[in-house]
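Sequence of Methylated-DNA--protein-cysteine methyltransferase (Haloferax gibbonsii).
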Amino acid sequence: MRVTMWEFAVDVDERLLGCPTDSLRTQLAEYERGERREFDVDVRFPDSFTGDVMRVMASIPYGETRTYGEVAAELDSHAVAVGQACGRNPVPLVVPCHRVVGADSLGGFSAAAGVELKRALLDHERGAVQTGLDAF
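Predicted 3D structure, token representation.
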């Protein structure tokens, strides 16, 4: 399924999500408007290293980031391998790979929109947290 977030197109593999497509689109629109910080969606994580990385990404709170190295340390792996797994994330936005950054840069982003969307997502979340906006 293709969704648009701030005029950036993002492909989300809804086959890995236990949620009707209409509900997912509604939740994504609420997130974009600042009305939602978490998604009410069951994610079927792949039984692989990518799935392990996705589980860690899913645990990173709204408005926070972790470095590739921090995620790698948690999984007893390497930062490059974590970056590659982030790039394979089939459900960006729902599993927030945008919250994993380089030690001294934003790093990449799995969605075709790339780093520009990653920056917009992080700015959106940080702005809501810093201004005290509460989506709940």
